[in-house]
Amino acid sequence: MTDYKLTRSKRKTLTIYVRKGAVEVRAPLKMSQSRIDAFVASKEDWIAKKLAESRKALALKEAFALSYGDTVLYRGKHYPIIAKAGRSIGFDGTQFYAPPDLTPEQIQQACVQLYRKMAKQVLAQKVSYYAKQLSVSPKAIRITSARTRWGSCSAKKNLNFSWRLIMAHDEVIDYVVVHELAHLIEMNHSERFWKTVSSIFPEYKEQKAQLKALQKRLNTENW
What we know:
Elements: E1 5-9, E2 15-19, E3 22-28, H1 33-42, H2 44-63, E4 71-74, E5 77-83, E6 90-91, E7 96-98, H3 104-134, E8 140-144, E9 151-153, E10 158-162, H4 170-182, H5 191-200, H6 204-218
Parallel strand pairs: 1-3, 5-7, 8-10
Antiparallel strand pairs: 2-3, 4-5, 6-7, 9-10
Helix pairs in contact: 3-4, 4-5
């Protein structure tokens, strides 16, 4: 039997999560232990496969390091990181540059700093453009460090976007922006909500698939 962490709550379904090389089972409060164990046993092959994938991703993430000459993603394209005399960091349209002799950790920190700055600028422009098309008015835009949510919309009409989104292709960034703006019209994922999204992106499922692929890649990189 696979070792797992059991979490009980006021839920109706039994679910297995495999994350960070560990297994968690979430179950209803009154479900019997024997039923839970039987369910886990029936999923042994699936769990083994997911554990192997998760542990491989963890190993890659732990080994992840950036050096001069490596490439990083920006708006769906790869750009090299170069050493440039001086103390400034930046992006000149063809490459990321940073002072020479930085450690791998410092190179990564410089990239993150640039990503956050560029995400703030690019997303503000895109929100403004698509807000006009949807006739909505968000109150504020905030760049976050979220790892599992590309974007969110609060009840106060504030939009939040992970800086990691700036790594995606422009059409994917646009989709996430439209998705969150659509929540200003429908604060749910109802048929009406998806109709609003598809009015701008009829093929939005393609963008969702690209986001999933990017998330899979980032699971092996320590951003």
